Amino acid sequence: MKKICIVGAGAIGGFLGAKLAALDDVEVSALARGKTLEALRQHGWRLRTAERTVSSPVRASHSASELGPQELVIIAVKGPALVQVAAEIAPLITEDTVVLPAMNGVPWWFARGVEALRGKTLESVDPGGSIARAIPQRHVLGAVVHASTSTPEPGLVAHKMGNGLIVGEPEGGESPRARRIVHLLCRAGFDVTLSTGIRQDIWYKLWGNLTMNPVSAITGATVDRVLADPLVRAFCSSAMAEASQIGARIGCAIEQSPEDRHVVTAKLGAFKSSMLQDVEAGRAIELDSIVSAVRELGQHLGIQTPNIDALLGLARLFGRVRGLYPEAEHRA
To answer: Which sequence positions are flagged as catalytic?
Structure first.
């Protein structure tokens, strides 16, 4: 792969872009806007680790037409921006382009091909099916990112911990293109797993984020404090148990108990979830891909989700009061 475009050069996009740009046989461009675009044009890719700050030149633009066709397009925008982004990136995509969404939560393609859903779509993450029309599934590889990053200033990414990526075909199994992408990412220094069941990997990460993200955003608490409160911890466990029922029905069964997962999460210490970071920065919250989609899946399957319902209601009201979640959308 010689031409790669990062769409959304924030904390995750900048992390991926900076590491890929260190390879001497690829051109890594960026589709960006505003202050991030200005910073990329002035400084290039910048990645700060505990040891040093590295930088690489980048061709950055706000125009997909200016950047032109790409072999790999990595989408790393926040969920609320994806409908608009999907409508704008057609000039990047040819018949052979691979699209790798490096995003939180349930992706727009997740329900397709799941027998238990019988052709249902997820309006919460792809209203009207516009994303699926703009980015046909034949272009898509699924991905999960396990890394903690932040943006102290536009265009500068600070990497705290984690270097893991999981990549796989939405339909399962392996493919030559998936192996090529995994090889590329390994060369760039990532710890990459080629998954034959990427839906399961996406669901497992979501299972933890489902509660930790919105609860920390609402309360302002780091995740260690969320888990230290027995009442809040029990509420999170109840919501996760509902999600486990949903996962079992869609081929994404989870063998752990919620308490098992809490023990794993607690080892990460006092960290701010990505949703809490968004709240503190005044950015729109990724509530639909992390919570609304899980509730919608439950509705399609006839599974009652009273704890997830309560979590969604509280989180979206919190977001609306602060202008971080749309007022106009009144989902039941």
So the answer is: 205
| Predicted pLDDT of residue 229 | 98
Q: Which tens digit of pLDDT belongs to each residue from 214-255?
A: 999 999 999 999 999 999 999 999 999 999 999 999 999 999
Determine the distance from the C-alpha atom of residue 262 to the mean position of all C-alpha atoms in its chain, rounded to a whole number.
21
**CA atoms of 86 and 84, how far apart (whole Å):** 6
Q: Can you give the length of the chain in residues? A: 332
Cα separation, 40 vs 60, whole angstroms: 7
- Determine contact, residues 20/54, Cβ cutoff 8 Å: no
φ and ψ at residue 279, rounded to 5 degrees:
-60, -45
| CATH architecture assigned to 200-321 | Orthogonal Bundle (1.10)
Alpha carbon 248 to its chain's center = 22
Q: Is 253 in a helix, a strand, or coil?
A: coil
| Among the four given CATH numbers 3.30.460.10, 3.30.110.70, 3.40.50.720, 3.30.420.180, the one describing domain 3-196 | 3.40.50.720
Instruction: Give the pair of three-digit tokens for residue 225.
Output: 């404090």
Q: Which two tokens stand for residue 234?
A: 């029990």
293-320 burial code (b ≥16 CB/10 A, e <16) = bbbbbbbbbebebebbbebbeebbebbe
Q: Please provide the DSSP assignment of 127-147 as one string.
A: GGGHHHHHS-GGGB-EEEEEE
Domain boundaries, the chain: 3-196, 200-321
